């Protein structure tokens, strides 16, 4: 069975952020992920991880001005200096948290931008980030995101993400395969797992129910079947990564809401 990591940005929202680590551990999670750690001192986060026996498996590099609607900088010409400073900060956090995966958001493509310039900027920034992170044993991840949730996002399809990884050729540049986004944009999820996981280019999975982004047992995807597919292919190719639980609990942030919705979670 895959290893599941609780996404502490979306789960356990009835608790302050630093208390969510204890809640996740109490429900049996051994790994955690979240969007951004930068509002907190890394030593405080590291203390929470150690206290509850948790592994930090993923977080995002700074995305620009999130509150103003920015969703990453990697493809944006003229923002290279800001992108690189942000990635250096992310790598500092990764070292402090013993985390070996950083997700780099591509950004929203300006409507008037030149497509070739966007692509060249994206490839250059990712190659630079992968080179910087390589010495730390850290993977740089890119994620196709659906245009319903994030209109205008630059990277939207699995094939495009894998083309980017192949083009750059860095061994630590990989794809973050979110099965929710994949289903919304493309469908045929099981076939895509079978197609892409054996390539060695998939560094992480995420999940949520479709279409409401609630628990994975609420919606149109048959996750028990997909978990079996991941297990089958992983056993064949030696993949041992994580599946991040990046969904919004249907009960919202009420006390115990996340825990009450974990009936889908396989228990060994």
Outline the biggest β-sheet: 8 strands, parallel, barrel
Q: Total strand count, please?
A: 8
Radius of gyration: 18 Å
C-alpha end-to-end distance: 8 Å
What is the level-2 CATH architecture name?
A: Alpha-Beta Barrel
The CATH fourth-level homologous superfamily: Divalent-metal-dependent TIM barrel enzymes
Task: State which percent range the strand residues make up.
Answer: 5-15%
- Label the overall shape: globular
Spell the H/E element sequence.
Answer: EHEHEHEHEHEHHEHEH
Uncertain segments: none
Structural class call reads alpha/beta
Mean pLDDT: 97
Number of domains: 1
Give the count of helical stretches: 9
CATH topology: TIM Barrel
What does this molecule look like?
The termini are close together. The protein has a single domain (3-261), classed as Divalent-metal-dependent TIM barrel enzymes (TIM Barrel), CATH 3.20.20. α3 (80-97) runs parallel beside α4 and α7 packs parallel to α8. By secondary structure, it is α/β, with parallel strands linked by helices. The longest helix is centred in the middle third of the chain and has 20 residues, at 115-134. α2 links the parallel β2 (31-33) and β3. The protein is built from nine helices and eight strands. Helices cover 37% and strands 14% of the residues.
């Amino acid at each position: 069975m895959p290893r599941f990591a609780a996404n502490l940005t979306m789960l356990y929202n009835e608790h302050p952020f630093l208390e969510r680590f204890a809640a996740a551990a109490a429900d049996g999670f051994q790994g955690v992920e979240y969007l951004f750690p930068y509002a907190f001192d890394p030593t405080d986060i590291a203390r929470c991880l150690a206290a509850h026996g948790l592994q930090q498996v993923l977080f995002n590099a700074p995305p620009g001005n999130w509150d103003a609607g920015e969703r990453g900088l990697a493809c944006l010409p003229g923002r290279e200096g800001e992108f690189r400073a942000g990635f250096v900060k992310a790598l500092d956090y990764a070292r402090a948290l013993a985390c070996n995966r950083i997700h780099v958001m591509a950004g929203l493509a300006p409507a008037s931008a030149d497509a070739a310039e966007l692509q060249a900027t994206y490839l250059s920034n990712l190659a630079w980030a992968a080179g910087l992170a390589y010495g730390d044993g850290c993977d740089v991840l890119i994620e196709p995101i659906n245009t319903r949730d994030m209109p205008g996002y630059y990277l939207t399809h699995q094939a495009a993400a894998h083309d980017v990884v192949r083009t750059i050729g860095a061994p630590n540049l990989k794809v973050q395969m979110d099965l929710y986004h994949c289903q919304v944009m493309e469908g045929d999820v099981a076939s895509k797992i079978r197609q892409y996981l054996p390539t060695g280019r998939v560094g992480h999975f995420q999940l949520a129910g479709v279409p409401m982004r609630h628990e994975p047992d609420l919606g149109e995807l048959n996750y028990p079947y997909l978990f079996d597919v991941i297990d089958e292919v992983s056993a064949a190719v030696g993949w041992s990564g994580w599946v991040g639980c990046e969904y919004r609990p249907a009960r919202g942030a009420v006390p115990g809401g996340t825990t009450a919705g974990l009936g889908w979670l396989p228990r060994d």
